[in-house]
């Protein structure tokens, strides 16, 4: 039991704390100068690799480039619901002039908050709704998938390729199909098998899915999930893997053929510059290999010289706009023609893709 | 030597009231140490965490908003916990409430009226009740452990929601993304204070809080639940039906969790999407115990918990502290509050390790 005397000191201590708080708060408010404040909302922790990690590299690129002229702020692990609206609003109310919201589920909250803060510039990644002060941006990840498919199609001995995928939304389906088309462009006999894990980030399930695919004979694994579990599984079981989002070679140096990585640096720098110059406008950015928003990480030593040349040639053709991963004819895996010969798929077709192309085994979950 | 927790024969009333204060002081001290070690001014950090979220009307509205689902779930759970019925699946019941209520909004999309919102709330409560009724049936009929069944059914509920928003309920104009249409205006909770998100769901939750308090403190059924928890043998001797207590507890907690789900969906999200709740149903278990299973204690506990979430965001936004640090601080706070509560009622005894036979 505490004695009366010690109670008094506790109360006194609390008083001191409260006073000090009041004083220091004043000090913080006094220190305010004219920097462009840029806010980021992340859906997961930054971690060492993955979707959010790449966005955070972009944030660091801004700081590096603009130095004193900008101050960046980020909030990690913001749930895609009511919390997102509050966080975005607080960033805007706190004086951030440019706010990047980096997950699909932030679309409606971003639009709502943007209405209340017409002078703030917003950029939302992976959605389709825009407003006068809301831009959208994404990268043509499928171009990297196609190149990964070329490497995988050349490296496989079993002609079975495994794909660990999160959710059957168009973005993911597009990646699977682009991969399969890359594979088939160099190896018409190979097949892609898909396992869905119903999660963007679940190392346990991703590992299980990878093991399942290996048991089905897959000797090159591809992933559309956020953890490094697939690359690690490939390393442990002596098969190959292609990383995603980030260079994952350190998690499986013997397995890692390459990774299709996201590079937001230049896009973020351009956007910040536009806001500084007062020229920012609402637009939609969807850049790929050509714009450098998708880049392949260095190929592993196991990739032979002829394959390297093949990939580099295809990369150049796609970047120059001469080769489209979905150039017709595109058949679905039931034999129906989706894009006729002589045409490329439209952006709308890419954005709503809900079928498997020829070369992918099974039915797309509905 | 072994450490053992032993119930105190006499629990000091004064210490019961003092324990939250002791916890507060310990938290402040730990906060000062933690933030100083990180090179942040601890006074600024503590102020940012506890005070800054509430310095605007909008912030106060958010405080109430974030506390509401926790409050509803925890008040419901406390009924069962008092009656020795362990519903761990409020998250699932919340999800089913959102699914059923949201389903009504979608079914009448484009063809609605002022009757829609009450109907949605009713459907949400029924959905949560129905989902809660399953573990109670399994318990009463097959004596299946309700902790396991209610927990597992949470994951089932989340998968059902996922199936619906990825499949049949997907927004036809939504580029195949997994989300439903946005509800019509009549399916959205009216905002009560201009400039905030403070909506009708908050006072509704308070009404239910009072109802549960009256039920537990003043009705015979509530008394039976309490006896079932505190003295199961006496309850059996008095002829109180154990099965009825189990069913009732699950219907109340399931219904309130369902209401939390539909209030969340119709109040702030305004559509169904794969994730409705960032774990309110599970956090509510902590809130229930933090509030000592009493409705008004739970009100305070849910406000504290809500402030912790808001404060964590503020630390990130204003002081650029990483999420992990705010998580550590939130954990410390809970540790001290629950720890001092335990030590008021129990004491730690050192006992000699029993010799191996």
Describe the structure.
The complex is a heterodimer of chains A (366) and B (357). With 366 residues, chain A is α/β, with parallel strands linked by helices. In chain A, the strands form 3 sheets. In chain A, strands 2-1-3-4-5-11 form a 6-stranded parallel sheet, sandwiched between helices. In chain A, helix 4 links the parallel strand 3 and strand 4. Chain B is mostly helical and 357 residues long. Chain B has a domain of 224 residues. In chain B, strands 1-2 form a two-stranded antiparallel sheet. The interface between A and B is large, with 49 and 51 residues.
Q: Sketch the topology of chain B as an H/E string, one letter per element.
A: EHHHHHHHHHHHHHE
**Spatial order of strands in the largest sheet of chain A:** 2-1-3-4-5-11
Counting H and I runs of at least 4 residues, what is the number of helices of chain A? 11
CATH architecture of the largest domain in chain A: 3-Layer(aba) Sandwich
Q: Which residue ranges of chain B are poorly predicted, with pLDDT under 50 across at least 5 consecutive positions?
A: none
CATH topology name of the largest domain in chain A, in short, is Rossmann fold
Rg of Cα set of chain B: 22 Å
Overall pLDDT metric of chain A: 91
Subunit arrangement of the protein: heterodimer
The order of strands across the largest sheet of chain B is 1-2
- From the N-terminal CA to the C-terminal CA of chain A, the straight-line distance is 64 Å
- Principal-axes shape call of chain A: globular
The whole-number mean of residue pLDDT values of chain B reads: 93
The percentage of residues in β strands of chain B lies in under 5%
Largest interface: A-B, 49 and 51 residues
Number of strands of chain A: 14
The CATH class name of the largest domain in chain A reads Alpha Beta
- First-to-last CA distance of chain B: 17 Å
């Amino acid at each position: 039991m505490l004695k009366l005397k010690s109670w008094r000191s506790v109360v006194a201590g609390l008083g001191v704390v409260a006073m000090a708080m009041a004083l220091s708060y004043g000090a913080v408010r006094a220190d305010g100068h004219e920097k462009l404040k840029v806010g980021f909302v992340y859906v997961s922790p930054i971690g060492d690799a993955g979707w959010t990690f790449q966005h955070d590299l972009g944030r660091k690129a801004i700081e590096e480039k603009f130095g004193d002229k900008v101050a960046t702020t980020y909030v990690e692990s913001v749930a895609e619901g009511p919390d997102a609206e509050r966080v975005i609003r607080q960033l805007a109310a706190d004086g951030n002039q440019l706010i990047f919201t980096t997950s699909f589920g932030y679309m409606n909250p971003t639009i709502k908050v943007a209405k209340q803060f017409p002078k703030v510039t917003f950029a939302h990644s992976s959605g389709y709704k825009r407003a006068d002060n809301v831009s959208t941006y994404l990268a043509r990840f499928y171009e990297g998938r196609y190149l990964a498919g070329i490497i995988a199609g050349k490296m496989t001995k079993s002609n079975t390729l495994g794909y660990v995928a999160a959710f059957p939304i168009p973005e993911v389906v597009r990646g699977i199909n682009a991969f399969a088309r890359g594979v088939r462009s160099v190896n018409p006999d190979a097949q892609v098998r898909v396992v869905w894990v119903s999660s963007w980030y679940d190392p346990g399930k991703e590992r299980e899915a990878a093991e399942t695919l290996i048991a089905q004979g897959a000797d090159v694994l591809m992933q559309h999930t956020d953890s490094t579990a697939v690359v690690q599984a490939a390393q442990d079981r002596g098969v190959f893997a292609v990383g995603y989002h980030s260079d994952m070679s350190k998690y499986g140096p013997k397995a890692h053929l390459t990774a299709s990585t996201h590079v937001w640096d230049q896009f973020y720098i351009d956007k910040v510059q536009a806001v500084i110059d007062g020229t920012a406008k609402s637009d939609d950015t969807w850049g790929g290999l050509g714009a450098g928003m998708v880049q392949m990480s260095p190929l592993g030593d196991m990739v032979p010289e002829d394959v390297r040349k093949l990939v580099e040639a295809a990369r150049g053709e796609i970047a120059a706009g001469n080769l489209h991963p979905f150039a017709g004819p595109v058949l679905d895996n039931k034999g129906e023609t989706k894009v006729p010969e002589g045409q490329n798929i439209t952006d709308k077709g890419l954005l709503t893709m809900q079928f498997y192309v020829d070369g992918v085994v099974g039915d797309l979950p509905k | 030597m072994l450490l053992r927790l032993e119930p105190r024969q006499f629990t000091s009333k004064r210490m019961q009231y003092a324990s939250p204060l002791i916890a507060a002081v310990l938290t402040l001290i730990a906060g000062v140490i933690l933030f100083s070690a990180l090179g942040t001014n601890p006074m600024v950090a503590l102020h940012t965490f506890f005070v800054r979220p509430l310095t605007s009307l909008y912030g106060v509205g958010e405080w109430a908003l974030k506390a509401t689902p926790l409050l509803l779930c925890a008040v419901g759970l406390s009924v069962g916990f008092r009656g020795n019925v362990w519903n761990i699946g409020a998250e699932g019941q919340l999800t089913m409430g959102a699914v059923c209520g949201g389903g009504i909004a979608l079914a009448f999309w484009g063809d609605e009226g002022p009757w829609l919102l009450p109907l949605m709330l009713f459907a949400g409560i029924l959905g949560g009740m129905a989902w809660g009724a399953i573990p109670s049936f399994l318990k009463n009929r097959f004596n299946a452990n309700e902790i396991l069944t209610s927990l597992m059914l949470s994951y089932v509920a989340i998968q059902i929601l996922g199936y619906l928003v990825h499949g049949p309920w997907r927004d036809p104009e939504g580029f195949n993304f997994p989300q439903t249409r946005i509800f019509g205006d009549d399916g959205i909770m009216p905002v009560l204070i201009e400039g905030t998100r403070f909506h009708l769901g908050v006072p509704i939750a308070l009404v239910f809080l009072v109802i549960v308090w009256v039920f537990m403190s003043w009705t015979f059924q509530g008394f039976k639940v309490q006896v079932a928890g505190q003295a199961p043998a006496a309850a059996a001797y008095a002829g109180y039906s154990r099965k009825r207590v189990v069913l009732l507890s699950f219907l109340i907690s399931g219904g309130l969790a369902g209401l939390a789900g539909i209030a969340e969906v119709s109040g702030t999200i305004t559509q169904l999407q794969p994730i409705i709740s960032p774990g309110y149903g599970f956090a509510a278990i902590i809130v229930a115990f933090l509030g000592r299973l009493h409705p008004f204690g739970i009100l305070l506990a849910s406000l504290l918990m809500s402030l912790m979430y808001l404060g964590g965001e503020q630390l990130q936004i204003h002081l650029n502290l990483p999420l992990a640090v705010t998580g550590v601080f939130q954990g410390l706070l809970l540790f001290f509050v629950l720890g001092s509560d335990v030590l008021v009622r129990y004491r730690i005894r050192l006992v000699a390790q029993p010799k191996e036979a």
